Amino acid sequence: MKKTLGITLAVLLGLGVVGAWAGDISGKVQTIDQAERTFVLDNGSKVWVAEGVSMDALKEGANVKASYEERDGKMIATSVEVSD
User: Fold this and answer.
1) Considering only CA atoms, which of 75, 16, 19 is closest in space to residue 46?
2) Number of independent structural domains in the chain
3) Residues 31-55 as b or e (16 or more Cβ within 10 Å = b)
4) What is the CATH number of the domain that holds 31?
5) Is residue 6 part of a domain?
6) 10-22, pLDDT tens digit by residue?
7) Is 15 a domain residue?
8) Cα–Cα distance measured from residue 41 to residue 7, given in angstroms and rounded to the nearest whole number
9) How many Å apart are CA 61 and CA 7, to the nearest integer?
10) Which residues pair with residue 32 across a beta bridge?
11) pTM
12) For the ranges 4-13, 31-40, 56-65, which has the lowest average pLDDT?
């Protein structure tokens, strides 16, 4: 019984550490912080842009759609599509 409980607990803890929640978000860019690699959408969501993902096309007022992973409670964009 103890062995089964220990294995179950280890699996659950492992899934919590390994699993990252992913999703999509879209909206109009309100502010951009190049130094922090973040942008804020019109709904108040703050999105961090992953290293290797270009921020060159981002500008205030542009409509964006981003795919992201939640890491440490932050939305980290793994791709960003910009349209005017």
Assistant:
1) 75
2) 1
3) ebeeeebbbbbeeeeebbbeeeeeb
4) 2.40.50.140
5) no
6) 444 444 444 567 8
7) no
8) 43
9) 51
10) 39
11) 0.74
12) 4-13
